[in-house]
């Protein structure tokens, strides 16, 4: 392929009425006519605009200067080749990624410090040198891609180190590109006074490692789904490519070509997205899926000076509601798929703007409630530092002055294409029961084998749970993924038939998923039969999960099954958080560290109960659940070809 020749783009699906056709809303002619020249548009003020930066809150300013000053004079974290090679050797990705992230965080703090430091502060020149050192350090790295994503490491060559002659464009590369692009936009003029080569090299490296590979190579499966399912990578990377293009690409023809390709890539994502606005990767990844998609549209419409009505499209509006629908309360969320039950990555300022742009006050209210009393822009001590999201929040006056709000906590949410129901006993409060259930299939993004699973929370805390995901390692996304206990159906709240759980694959799915609603009950119904392997597959396994809003508030899980012949064995599994206590006559209690217990009842004449402790040594699990979870296993006394069973969960009276 000749230099700068765009890679071929496959044809789009034709059913574009159900999603906004970005290629029609923002055709090449619009991009060409409305695209500003480099330097004529920026989402953030330059550090030389002292008035803009002096308006930032003094408490925020003080924290930035303190964080940046703590690194002055210290060596930058090292990234020897042996750290990169660890992933290929033993699957560990964090020995490399942690110091790589530390470098980028340090540069981000320094950039903000240059902008916020008063001219009279003697440290200002030191902060500017720190920015220069950070830019040079990143430009000296052999690769910006994370080891777990590098083509040479993952490909047929099975190398241990990246080849700088053929850079991989992944989340690490695009994230570095947008960090450098914002560094250019904020401090570039001041860097020029130190040495113009710094800015020239920054732009050259962004083009060589990110923009040209994106434009010229057609091997990015996250662009069109050609080699991988479309997921958060598409809007996440495109949100960063958009800013990197707008802020660093000097050639007008190439700027237009890049923007047009990004528009097409985003349309690929929207064409494949569930029309109900759901995110099959779960609420943790929504912050880099739906939220990043919004950032793409926000940047694109600002850059071109027209929104073409895109924020009014039903799909774009529905995507904004997903975090509201899946919120349990007190930091907990409905966490199907890879994601913690207590998500760490929140960007409430992004969600607030999303609610404003789509005219959905409940979305903006949810965002403001997420923020609580925290700084409106800066991350918490253990939070994720994203310079782009930080500066967007810093200059969002509406967000910074928004009055405190309560979480909306809707009574009912149903996503028919994603096949997820969330039902709350009493809307507007975490008090009482919440039930969440899913159908779906076993080849979803960041999939777990969990068709028909459910979560039950009491007073805002999950007690019948989804464990989530442990620390990512090589096997997490390899052929041994389903050797990890938390990915298997045996550690989800689903049946085990004839000793077999559910296998992975899109053919293993729920059928007939529906929801019914009355004033006093919400019911999710699906058939699980097709989720099981052929050798033990039932003819039917109808599961219903019902939240009853009555004086005797409860969740009922009804299973009705039929086989051609009786299976060898049959068991129902529940994964629980809290102290699990088995009691006589088909009863067990789940007691959290604080608050009311949950009483579980079942038919003890048909099932025998056993309990297992699941020790949690992985810090990703321990951060959420502590040192243990427990598994309640109900085993049928006799496996019959046909049968039915009801399991019930209800709050224990206070003090019992």
Instruction: Report the total helices.
Output: 22
Shape: globular
The amount of beta strand, in percent, is: 15-25%
Pick out the low-confidence regions: 1-6, 8-16
For the residues shown, what is the average pLDDT?
Answer: 95
For the biggest sheet, the summary is: 8 strands, antiparallel
Number of strands: 21
Secondary-structure blueprint of this entry?
Blueprint: H1 22-25, H2 28-34, H3 50-54, H4 58-69, H5 81-90, H6 94-116, H7 124-140, H8 151-154, H9 171-194, H10 196-216, H11 221-224, H12 233-248, H13 252-272, H14 283-286, H15 290-304, H16 314-320, H17 322-325, E1 327-329, E2 332-333, H18 348-357, H19 361-371, H20 387-394, H21 397-400, E3 412-415, E4 420-424, E5 433-438, E6 441-442, E7 454-458, E8 461-464, E9 495-497, E10 505-509, E11 511-518, E12 521-527, E13 540-548, E14 554-562, E15 570-576, E16 579-583, E17 587-591, E18 598-601, E19 607-615, H22 619-625, E20 628-636, E21 642-651
Antiparallel strand pairs: 1-2, 3-4, 4-5, 5-7, 6-10, 7-8, 9-15, 11-12, 12-13, 13-14, 14-21, 15-20, 16-17, 17-18, 18-21, 19-20
């Amino acid at each position: 392929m000749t230099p700068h020749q765009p890679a071929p783009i496959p044809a789009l699906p034709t059913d574009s009425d159900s999603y906004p056709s970005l290629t029609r809303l923002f055709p090449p002619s619009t991009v060409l006519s409305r695209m500003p020249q480099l330097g004529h548009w920026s989402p953030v003020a330059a550090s030389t605009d002292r008035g803009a930066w002096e308006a930032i809150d003094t408490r925020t300013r003080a924290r930035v200067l303190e964080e940046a000053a703590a690194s002055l004079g210290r060596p930058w974290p090292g990234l020897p080749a042996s750290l990169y090679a660890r992933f290929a050797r033993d699957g560990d990705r964090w020995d490399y990624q942690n110091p790589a992230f530390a470098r980028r965080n340090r540069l981000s703090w320094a950039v903000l410090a240059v902008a916020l430091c008063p001219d009279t502060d003697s440290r200002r020149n030191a902060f500017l040198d720190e920015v220069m050192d950070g830019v040079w350090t990143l430009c000296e790295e052999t690769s910006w891609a994370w080891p777990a994503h590098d083509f040479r490491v993952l490909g047929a060559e099975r190398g241990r180190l990246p080849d700088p002659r053929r850079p991989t464009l992944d989340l690490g590369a695009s994230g570095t590109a947008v960090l450098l692009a914002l560094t250019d936009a904020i401090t570039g003029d001041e860097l020029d006074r130190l040495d113009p080569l710094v800015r020239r090299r920054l732009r050259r490296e962004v083009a060589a490692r990110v923009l040209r590979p994106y434009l010229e190579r057609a091997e990015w499966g996250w662009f069109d789904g050609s080699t991988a399912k479309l997921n958060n990578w598409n809007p996440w990377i495109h949100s960063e490519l958009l800013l990197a293009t707008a802020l660093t690409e000097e050639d007008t023809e190439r700027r237009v070509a890049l923007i047009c390709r990004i528009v097409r890539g985003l349309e690929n994502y929207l064409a494949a997205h569930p029309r109900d606005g759901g995110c099959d990767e779960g609420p943790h990844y929504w912050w880099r899926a739906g939220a990043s998609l919004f950032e793409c549209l926000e940047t694109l419409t600002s850059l071109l000076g027209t929104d073409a009505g895109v924020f009014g499209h039903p799909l774009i509006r529905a995507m904004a509601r997903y975090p509201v629908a899946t919120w349990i309360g007190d930091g907990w969320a409905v966490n199907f798929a890879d994601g913690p039950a207590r998500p760490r990555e929140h960007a409430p300022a992004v969600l607030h703007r999303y609610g404003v742009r789509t005219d959905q006050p409940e979305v903006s209210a949810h965002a403001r409630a997420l923020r609580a009393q925290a700084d409106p822009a800066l991350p918490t001590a253990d939070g994720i530092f994203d310079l782009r999201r930080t500066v967007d929040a810093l200059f969002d006056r509406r967000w910074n002055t928004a009055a405190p709000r309560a979480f909306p906590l809707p009574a009912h949410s149903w996503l028919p294409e994603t096949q997820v129901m969330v039902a709350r006993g009493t809307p507007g409060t975490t008090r009482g029961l919440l039930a969440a259930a899913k159908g779906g299939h076993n080849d979803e993004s960041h999939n777990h084998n969990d068709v028909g699973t459910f979560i039950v929370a009491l007073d805002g805390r999950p007690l019948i749970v989804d464990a989530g995901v442990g620390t990512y390692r090589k096997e997490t996304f390899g052929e041994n993924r389903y050797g990890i206990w938390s990915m298997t159906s045996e550690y989800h709240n689903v049946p085990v038939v004839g000793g077999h759980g559910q296998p992975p694959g899109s053919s293993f799915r729920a059928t007939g998923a529906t929801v019914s609603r009355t004033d006093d009950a919400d019911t999710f119904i699906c058939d699980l039969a097709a989720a099981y392997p052929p050798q033990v597959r039932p003819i039917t396994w109808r599961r219903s999960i019902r939240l009853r809003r009555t004086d005797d508030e409860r969740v009922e899980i009804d299973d009705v099954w039929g086989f051609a012949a009786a299976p060898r064995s049959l068991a129902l599994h529940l994964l629980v958080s809290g102290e699990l206590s088995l009691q006589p006559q088909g009863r067990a209690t789940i007691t959290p560290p604080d608050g009311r217990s949950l009483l579980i009842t079942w038919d003890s004449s048909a099932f025998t109960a056993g309990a297992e402790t699941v020790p949690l040594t992985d810090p990703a699990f321990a951060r959420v659940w502590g040192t243990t979870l427990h598994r309640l296993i109900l085993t049928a006394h006799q496996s019959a070809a046909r049968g039915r069973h009801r399991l019930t969960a209800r709050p224990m009276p206070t003090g019992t």
